[in-house]
Write a structure and sequence with these properties.
The structure holds three protein chains of three kinds. Chain A is mostly helical. Chain A has helices spanning about 1-20, 30-35, 40-75. Classes of the chains: A mainly alpha, B mainly alpha, C mainly alpha.
């Protein structure tokens, strides 16, 4: 257990010290994804999820509206 | 139909805008944060939405005590429930974000990250509303439950604000813009949020809050319907 | 108003003197908790650990001390109070009484800590002051929580659940503040600033309690 933590710490320190070396001039960004257009896939996936979520909530909203109407007619 | 639900459509439009603009627009290039700066549009909005929803819940609790209308209690508890949901989401996304920025890049241990003042504030808020629901659960009498839990809601929410204001002054912060945090802070500074980011951030907050309100109104309508049916039977 | 508060206070103290077993019960609770700590801790814990242990114990002592203040009142007696006093006088009376009781208990637990777990405090007088201030704040918050929990027909566990998140910032303030008594050097005036913040918290709790208690009072 202790060894694991030691390793993990070493890894963290290593990462922390090495990262600035990679990117001395510019902070690393996902430029590659942008250049070959793959970022649009990410956007599309998120939008699909969002649209699905909204459709679901809207359907619940409608169902409740119908129930409210029925309830009003009954009473 | 459309006139009544314009804000639901607005919420949808704003969130679509958030995702499209949030992923595609240019953001400031910062070390350590890199692309994760875009989390601002999602993770931080969870906290904003949570606080707004809790605020609405607080408002309805006061309203309940002023007139003892049962409706207001349903409103207060539903908004508190959805607020807690956003709080939990905010906590989870925060853990993800922290694990790639502060923990790995900065060599902070997880224990020291969890003592971060904003996280303490968030944890207090979640604990308070957890206690609120436990309290609600322990009553059988509806009126009594509404009254007592409204009192606790008001008291706890009023105590939350000074807490959030004070704790950062006690514990050193990693979060941006906090007094006492060292310079060389890897997270966002208020100055780092340039005009372009603001153009996405504020609509995002409004969009997320509106969908929270929408879900809360659904909960309210279901609760009121249930009561109506119970009364007729 | 003042007379009513005084009368209620008098009644609570009289009750305490008549039913000594609860009082001794709390004393024993403090003694046994500290004794358990003494046996389970390494010899002479450092000041940091000592400090946090002390405040956590204070928290639990407070829950136990204040818990009974509303739970002990039977339904019939509450109805009697309802007919003779106002809710504001009642809650203020309770708060003052719990404050006095908690101050006493704080002193007792401090003495136990000094006896069993050594004394890392360099400025004892200052620390006693801080402990008093802390006891005051704790008792105020938990009095109101006890009033809420009593309505829910629940035990001390609910008081703890309700009270802990609310008291947490104050507790952090107090832990920070007590470092002044351990010889840590503060900026000029920082000690008073922190103490003032705790005081403001107490004031806020007091105001909220006076405003909100009338709603808890009626059944």
């Amino acid at each position: 257990m202790f060894k694991f933590w030691q390793k993990a710490m070493a890894l963290m320190v290593g990462l922390a010290t090495s990262l600035p070396l990679f990117a001395q001039e510019k902070a690393a960004m996902a430029d590659l994804m942008r250049s070959n257009g793959k970022i649009y896939i990410v956007v599309a996936v998120c939008l699909t999820i969002l649209i699905g979520l909204f459709l679901y909530v809207t359907s619940i909203d409608r169902k409740i509206s119908r129930l409210e109407k029925e309830n009003k007619n009954q009473s | 139909m459309v006139q009544k639900s314009w804000w639901k459509i607005l919420s949808f439009v704003l969130l679509v805008y958030t995702i499209v603009a949030g992923f595609l627009l240019e953001v400031p290039r910062l070390f350590i944060l890199n692309e994760t700066i875009r989390n601002l549009y999602f993770h931080v909005c969870m906290w904003f939405a949570m606080m707004i929803l809790f605020g609405v819940s607080f408002f309805y609790s006061i309203k309940y005590l002023r007139g003892f209308h049962y409706r207001n209690d349903v409103f207060a508890s539903s908004f508190a429930a959805v607020g807690s949901l956003f709080g939990v989401l905010g906590y989870l996304t925060g853990v993800l974000w922290v694990s790639v920025t502060w923990v790995t890049d900065q060599g902070q241990s997880l224990a020291s990250v969890l003592k971060e003042p904003k996280l303490i504030g968030a944890a207090i808020a979640l604990l308070i509303y957890g206690a609120y629901f436990v309290l609600r659960g322990s009553f059988t009498d509806i009126d009594k439950r509404a009254r007592i839990s409204a009192v606790y809601n008001i008291f706890a929410f009023a105590m939350l604000f000074p807490s959030i204001w004070i704790i950062p002054r006690l514990v050193g912060s990693l979060h941006p813009g906090a007094p006492g945090s060292d310079s060389g802070n890897p997270a966002l500074d208020r100055n780092d949020m340039d005009a372009g980011m603001r153009m996405v951030f504020y609509p995002a907050v409004i969009g997320w809050t509106l969908i929270g309100i929408w879900i809360a109104t659904l909960k309210i309508r279901v609760a009121l319907l249930k009561d109506k049916i119970l009364m007729h039977v | 108003m003042t007379r009513k508060v005084l009368a209620l206070l008098h009644k609570d103290i009289l009750l305490e003197l008549r039913q000594k077993h609860t009082f001794y019960g709390i004393l024993l609770y403090i003694a046994s908790t500290v004794f358990v700590l003494y046996l389970s801790m390494p010899e002479s814990p450092d000041a940091q650990v000592w400090n946090s242990l002390f405040w956590v114990i204070q928290l639990f002592v407070c829950v136990n001390t204040v818990a009974k203040s509303f739970l002990q009142e039977s339904r019939g007696r509450m109805l009697y109070f309802y007919s003779i006093t106002s809710p504001r006088a009642f809650i203020i009376g309770k708060m003052i009484y719990n404050m006095l009781l908690m101050l006493l208990m704080s002193l007792v637990s401090l003495i136990f800590f000094f006896v069993f777990l050594e004394n890392p405090v360099s400025d004892s007088l200052l620390f006693v002051g801080i402990v008093m201030l802390g006891g005051l704040g704790l008792s105020l918050v938990f009095t109101l929580m006890s009033a809420i929990a009593a309505k829910a027909q629940q035990n001390a566990a609910l008081i703890a659940i309700l009270g802990f998140p609310v008291i947490l910032p104050q507790l952090l303030l107090l832990m920070r503040l007590s470092k002044a008594a351990f010889g840590e050097v503060f900026r000029d005036g920082a000690v008073w600033q922190l103490a003032g913040l705790v005081g403001l918290f107490d004031l806020l709790v007091l105001v909220l309690a006076v405003v909100l208690f009338p709603y808890l009072w009626k059944d």
